[in-house]
Amino acid sequence: MARLADYFVVVGYDLDKRGGSEGQGHILQRFPEKDWEDNPFPQGIELFCQPNGWQLVPERERPSFFVSVLTDINSERHYCACFTFWEGLDNPQLQKAEASEVDEDEVPGLVQPAQVFAPKSLVLVSRLDHTEVFRNCLGLIYTVHVDSLSVPLETVIGNLLTCVIPVAGGSQRTITLGAGDRQVIQTPINDSLPVSGSSVAHLFRQLGIVNVLYLFCAALTEHKILFLSSSYQRLTDACRALLAIMFPLKYSFTYVPILPGKLLEVLSTPTPFIIGVNSFFRSETQELVGSMTLDVIIADLDGGTVTIPECVHISLLPDPLLQQTQTALSMVLDPELEIADHAFPPSSTQPSTLKIQDKEIRAVFLWLFGQLFHGYRWCLHIIRIHPEPVIRFHKAAFLGQRALTEDDFLMKVLDGMAFAGFISERGPPYRPTDLFDDLIANQVERIRQEECSPHKVMNHIKELAEQLFKNENPYPAVAMHKVQRPAESPGHNDPKNLAIFPPLDDVTVQLFIDHAAAKLKTAPPVVKPELNGMVPSGPPLGDIVDRHGHVLANSARRLEVVRNCITYIFDNKMLEAKKLMPAVLRALKGRAARVCLTQELNQHVLQNRAVLDDQQFDYIVRMMNCTLQDCSHMDEHGIAAILLPLVTAFCRKLGAGITQFAYSCVQEHMVWTNMQFWEAMFYSDVQNHIRALYLEADGGELSTSSHGQQESGPAAGGQELLGALELASEQSRLWPTLSKEQQSERVQKEESTVFSQAIHYANRMSYLLLPLDTSKNRLLNRSGIGDVESVSNSYVTNSIAGSMAESYDTESGFEDAESSDVANSVVRFINRFVDKVCNESGVTNEHLKALHTMIPDIVQMHIETLDAVHRESKRLPPIQKPKLLRPILLAGEELVMDGMRVHLISDGREEATGALGGPPLLPAEGAIFLTTYRLIFKGTPNDPLVGEQVVTRSFPIASLTKEKRISVSLTMDQFIQEGLQLRSCTFQLLKIAFDEEVASDLAEVFRKHMHKLRYPQHVQGTFAFTVGQSGKTLVEHKTKDKNQSIKTLSKNLVKSAKRTIGRQYVTRKKYSPPTWENRSSLQSELDEDEISVSEELDQGSLTLSSTIRSSDRQTMSNVVERACCRDYQRLGLGTLSNSLTRSKNEPFRISTVNRMYTVCRSYPGLLIVPQSIPDSTIQRISRCYRQNRFPVVCWRNSRTKAVLLRSAGLHAKGVVGFFKSPNAPSAGPSQADSTSLEQEKYMQAIISSMPSYCEPSGRNTLGGFTSTHMSTSDSSDKLRQPKIGALMKQVMGGKEDVPGTFSRGALGQRARVISLSQPRVSGKARNPPGGKWGSIRGSGRLSAYNPEVGNRLSSKESPQPNGGPSEALFLRQQRAYLYIIGDKTQLKGGKQDSFQQWEVVPIEVCDVRQVKNSFKKLMKACVPSSATSEPSMTFHRCLEESEWMCLLHRVLQVSVLVVELLDTGSSVMVSLEDGWDVTTQVVSLVQLLSDPYYRTFDGFRLLVEKEWLSFGHRFSHRGAQTLASQSSGFTPVFLQFLDCVHQIHLQFPMEFEFSQYYLKFLAYHYVSNRFRTFLLDSDYERIELGVLYEEKGEKKNPQVCKSVWDYIDRLNKKTPIFFNYMFSPEDEEVLRPYSFISNLKVWDFYTEETLSEGPSYDWELVQRGRQERLAEEVPDKPDTTTPKSQRHIVWPCYDSRSRVVPDAITKLLQDLQSLEAELVLPPEKWKDTWDKIKANQRAEAKLENRPSFNSSLLMSSNLSHQRRSQGVYLPESGVGSSINLAMDRETSTTSTPVAGRPSTSTLYSQFQSTESENRSFEGILFKKGALLKPWKPRWFVLDKTKHQLRYYESRQDKECKGVIELAEVESVIPGTPTMGAPKNIEEKAFFDLKTTKRVYNFCAQDSPNAQLWMDSIQSCLSDA
Could you tell me which of 1882, 1886, 1887, 1851 has the C-alpha nearest to residue 1869? Predict the structure, then answer.
């Protein structure tokens, strides 16, 4: 029974304390005055009566009523029903004003009302929630007061305070307050179920289903929820509703349905809450909420919205449940939805009344919790029964068995406070039960069957709703209420009528209360029937999960494998077990297999022990490790729990009395360091023992105690006859019947059981936490055991763990200290565990102290046993590990660190793992070797089936780009603590894990050595220098020479060189440099030359260290060779003759201005400059360019005489000066002006050197050449022109519709000019020189892209048909003489030369950073570090993201443009960045494309030496070869160039003498540092080190080649590996490759690898390796029994395909060699053999006098006529056209393709035998027969490839009727109709073809067609 009301309070407006605008309330009276003992008076009621604040109002408001809820310190809720009405009083403002006469603050014009109204509240405080009853009672008191009824108020209040009603039980109680009223109070049947009235239904109506579900999930997962409404009562109802649907969970955080405005700060509390606030405070709450990181969810009841801030993530219900819940709710709230589409809807489907609907909604949530929590009782551990049950919930087991371990929502709910309360309340097995217990126990099966049928679900929900409704309304409603309400009289609101609420007589009220209290004391006590009973547990979890199908479908086969393997192990069939092992380890990734493993192992344990031999032990341990390793966090507990007893059971004997248990080998798993795991295990075991205790006590009639021991899994005691909970329930029932002695005996027994288990667990934990080698603090370091809080699920990830290096130095003599350190942390961990579990399970303090003293002893004892085990285990013969294979080393290569046993782990390349088919070569076990040159892994695959293969992976140490520590877990063995991932720029990745036998400090030493070798202090520390050297070979000069200036020395050298070079190539006379004595005479000779060395530079900065050997005979020839003079002579760019004898008509000369490297450090000593420019000018010009790299000539086109120049970009200040107009007035001859003038002079000198440039005749025509190419015909020219323009536009990246394009006027008109802002410039442009076009002046935005350049180049106007120089032609030929390829960013603000002699082409270049980043991404794409299945990480996606192909495209595109420009007679200067990266790439590619010489071995070598080495590409810096350049990182500019060459090689395979392998060889060795060729950054540095002029004939160590070129030459003599058999060059062929990304291929250098022998670029190693392997394969005795198969399986990533499956020619050459060996003939060099064969071919072909296409095609030298046009020939039905891929030069509008100049690329599809396939142009022509024969139509085919015109009877005809060889054609001219010609054809359709033998007359269908034919034939002729 309980009081209906505890307190009655009258609260009024406090007139004395009025401050500012806010009033205050105060308690006028309260009854009873004294607090009840069981229920103190709640504080702060006056705030809650007026939550919006106490205010006076001008008009009386209606009475209001609401209930607010206060929570006291004991979490008891007090319901404060508050009834407020308004009483009039005279305005205090007016009274005040009269008193102080005039108040300055008063605002005039505001009329103050005479009377105002103050609020007064009647408050009823109760612990029961009967809202309606409270409303009626307070209403009655008000009515009595207002209507002045005859009943005294004291009586009514006295009756109210003494009314007592039952709390629950379902009875009805009628009460009356003595004012003629009567009320019936209905109590609920069961007070554990919440009473909700219709509030839940209202909440759903206000917010909707989805919003309420959000709030529901938010409340369960402990978020902050704020309700807003303008109605107080609605706020209370909404909060009540939210709590009702959370049943059976109870909300335990801050709960304030109505929060007063004064307490709004409460909202900024960090804890979760459910709070309601009046919308009146909306803005304030938003400010508050806004200031506190916005983690409050706001539900607006009036607006129906729920606002969830972005930072809040609400975990929603798991998926099928969420859907089912929403469906069920919509069926309750909106039943019409389901039948809305029915054709014949039922007559009416109204939703239930609100009260019923409310219960239906709650039933849905009850059903939902039934789904969520079913089976929870199977995961309860009861650890004490007496005196009070102590119960723990095993969360991990619950989630694991429900297969919901990943579910966010359930995890949070189970971790929450509400669930903890749920367990403590509902955990005890003997207590009253309610609806929810019944649902969990009896209806789970039903819920599961109904899942799929919404209607069955609805029926179930309706049943539940009925029970809920019955709980609140057990009887039909009785209409016995009678409560008076105030009379609504007309004068009701008249203030005169209303008296003030009178003060009450407290004595009278107190008398009522005392009287009632006395009466209660005398009444007999109410006997409450005992409703306790056993709580049923419901069906166990396991079954349900299995039916859900969470077990692997294909697990049966896997389980079979696991079972078989274990059987084999215990039957000692080790070989069988070994074969199954990999499959077993794979199977153990599945849960079923893991459980199966534990069950199988359990069967082999007898009396808690199973002794194994070494190999069995090893296998069992491996399987256990694998099982534990692949567990998820949640499953881990289940599996580890079952394994825990097993790891202490399996053991092996090591020696006398020494046994090693399995636990010492499975310690490396995080689960052992997780406090929660140990607690769960402990509780589970305690529960079993306590159960056993009572079973025995009951007379042992159930002998299941032995099971109990084993059944330590999470579902403990699940399937046994009597579960622990049932047993506990029975014991609790019997407890009151026992005598005191029996009770205390039971308590004591239980307590000692727990105590003994605690000791047992202290032992167990020390087993698993103390490492075998206690000197290493391994496990503890990794997890920081000492600090793991038991609450936090602290999983330290492997990678972190692995990265904590163990730096224990065991030899330092501190062993004891360290082992005790291990001991201490283990002791601490166990102590914390013991404290926690013993406190929870009520162990006495004495016992706890005993435990604490015991634990250190246990640990110490265990450490001692472990030491013995560790000692013995070291003596064990090691497990048969594969023996370490030694790598083959190069001559001069030395081991730095001998092999360390490692495992090579597979990376993201799947070929080697067997994922793409083929054998799993990786992971492999072997050793890593560090030599002075390479990092080598050599070993054998782990997979026993591939065990005999050898796996080799290596890369040069100098190519290491990234080293990263990783921690690796190998499935096969125990955890391997640390590993390294080493990435190399030769596209190799070594992912290694150190074996446990490798000490961690050794791994550290390895890393240090590696770093030292990778980044030597100086370039002399690299392998190329240290190889084969015992000491330094730097020759020091004698002391007396110290002060001799090296400068003068090299001056002399160069000087004498100049004099001798001219003769040298002729006479080859040996040259000896002058001795020191002759120095003075030489000096005087030097002075004859007009060049003087610039003296401005500081002497000191120039002295070369004394390394030029004065006695080196060949120094000079080396200088000359190095300066590539041979090449310059070949190109006709000048010779090194004395200045006097120099022929003045040569346009260029070789200048020695840089012989001392004073002008430019990074340029070679000898440079080509224009004849007319003196050296002094050069020195000045050089300062305008970055790094002083001024323009020099590096190549000249032998046909057009155009030259190619290279330089760096201009300094920023030089740009504008350079482009200043020469005639612009300047203030004075400043320094800058003179420099820019000299620059102009320099440019002009270059232009003047070109034969096309002849001042008088016409600056504006290119016809100055006598080259056939230019003058043959306009048509071919016309076809070519647009090409360059298009290229230019592409290169410059412009669009057609750039706002600055010009419309060109006719000749006389003034061109439109885009002028700069300076007026004088535009003024000058107004009268352009006659016949010239105004210069282009772009301001900022436009100058970056210069559209005119493209337009002028693409020359849109076509010449007149007869080829005469029309005006248009005149305009067209405004091609500039010199194009400067410059960087867009640099050329801003410059203007073009107004005479258009040169033109700047601004392009965007890729800077070094881009190349570096792109390369990193390319490496990751080609050699990923780990396999990934993400679609965003596929190879092609990564390749695209790396943008490597785009960079290649850009370089190729610019190069092709330059080639085109040079080929049409304009010179080009490439002037980009610092002139040593992109410039070098472009210049080299241009020469390679334009000049066939550079496509041979010698030429390519020369090209690289000249452009890359001499012109100072910074190989050491870009390759990060030394410590100094380490930070700049690796930038493969040269590799990019080689890749471009590779792309060109692919498109033109017949044009290169060298093979693709040659390019790969260079790509590998330019970073390998094996040769000195690619070391250092310039010739200057090489001379300084004495590398440049090394004697060719040094024979100190013939094995060691210092130059890569010598090595290639040497190797090329031995083997055709570098030679391209398809080499069949065309004379003077200019290549124009396609550069679109679609035409580029990924270089296989990036992706291929040969695991059998490592990279094939160190040829000697590969050869020696192959010989060794062959030697091994030759058997000792010939095996005659079985014929040996000649078959050999070739694996793509293992074998070298080129070796195993060589191409035909290599194979034939090899066969020749072996035959020679067999016949003991002297071996012939392969090159000689090859040349002979080719010579024979030529002879045969000549005899046959026709191109031989049938026999040995590739070697045919008759390919000179085969034009290689990359066309795919499609014999179409209409026209057999050649479809050119990519950038077509033909811009014809007609449908028939025009045969323009063929793009010379190769798809060698030409060589089919049917001649009809090669059709460049075809159609019908009438041909006049021979003498007196008629004209006949024939099908003519023009074949560029075979260079002939063939004709056939008809289109379909395969038989050729005749051939006209184009080689014999002399001319094609328009003809005239002759006799018998076809009628009705215009005259212009006739043309004649004149050959050396006769004249052919042709007639086309019309004149355009005839013109097309003539053009096509003409272009063929001109191409020839």
Answer: 1887
